[in-house]
Amino acid sequence: MGVDFEVETEEPRKYEKVVLPPYIVTTLKSKGRTVIGSKYISRYGKKRILNYLAKQGLKCRLDVAGTEEDPTDILEVDR
Prior knowledge:
about 80 residues, alpha+beta, 3 strands, 3 helices
């Protein structure tokens, strides 16, 4: 048909400031673990999120729980 089109894909923005919902830091400080939405991981990347939390004084790790069809990302404070 000779039709050309462009598809824009959203890639993680390298210099975009990491902004997480306040419940994440609050829950990590009080309970030691919390669920984080996959949209934040795809937007910022695991490494940037863990670095951001380290600057908040929380040394964390990111685990994946749940099933293959419905994975759940869990942040947990390393003790």
